[in-house]
Design brief:
about 240 residues, alpha+beta, 10 helices, globular
């Protein structure tokens, strides 16, 4: 899970904007891996965020880094539940279903994990798209943002990997497209959820402010799980008069 899109103009403003976009992109992936998997009762999986701190390096080094990392300036290392991909899900399921009823439950869990990986891939560029829409004061909806448009939000490699999953899911192109469209909608709704978006924004801000090149899994989980405490004024509003005296 990596954020593609090379910086064409290396002005300070562009570098800052690029870093912000990359931070939201990777924060989206991370939120999917932790929060989306958790919501679907999937097992935790280890991952970290590898992020190049641009404000410490020269312009030519940014270009060199991108060139050596396939134009990637940020990535989530790990985080996938299904790896490597099966050649064919249909054949795998058919073979397993021959054995006994106990495998039926395993098959359902496997498919849930398989779909979660695709959703988490799509959440990254969708989070970047929502961030861009917010700062440009534009709408973020299904009419303006579709699967193909995610390439405009650093999602080229994410879409390529999602397509690999789809090809493993079925050899029929229509079924592949239908599955990706279905899971795109799930990913979109995840990003558009207020609580999830707050968690993504919180992690993106941490990434932007951090001087670290690698943010470990434990840090990420703590930030995503952080509960906003009510302010003292809000607490005071709910206290009985005697306790306020």
């Amino acid at each position: 899970m990596k954020r593609n899109r090379i910086i064409e103009s290396l002005s300070q403003d562009n570098v800052i904007k690029h870093k912000q976009c990359a931070a939201f992109h990777e924060a989206g992936h991370a939120a999917g891996i932790h929060l989306n998997n958790q919501a679907n009762h999937l097992p935790p999986v280890f991952f970290n965020i590898d992020f190049k701190a641009f404000h410490y390096i020269a312009d030519e080094d940014v270009m060199a880094y991108q060139s050596s990392h396939n134009d990637c300036i940020a990535r989530v290392q790990g985080g996938r539940l299904i790896e490597p991909l099966p050649v064919s899900i249909d054949k795998l399921m058919l073979e397993l279903s021959k054995h006994n009823d106990a495998t039926v439950h395993w098959i359902k869990d496997y498919m849930k994990a398989f779909e979660a990986d695709i959703i988490n891939l799509l959440i990254g560029p969708l989070a970047e798209a929502k961030h861009v829409a917010d700062i440009d004061d534009e709408l973020f909806n299904h009419q303006l943002i579709n699967l193909k448009s995610l390439e405009n939000y650093g999602g080229k490699s994410d879409l390529a990997l999602a397509n690999e999953y789809a090809q493993s899911f079925s050899t029929d192109k229509q079924q592949q497209d239908e599955k990706l469209d279905e899971l795109f909608t799930v990913a979109f709704d995840f990003v558009n959820n207020n609580a999830n978006w707050k968690a993504i924004t919180r992690l993106a801000a941490y990434i932007i402010d951090s001087s670290k090149n690698i943010i470990c899994c434990e840090e990420i989980v703590l930030i995503l799980d952080q509960v906003e405490l009510p302010s003292k004024s809000k607490i005071a509003e709910n206290l009985p008069p005697l306790l306020l005296a």
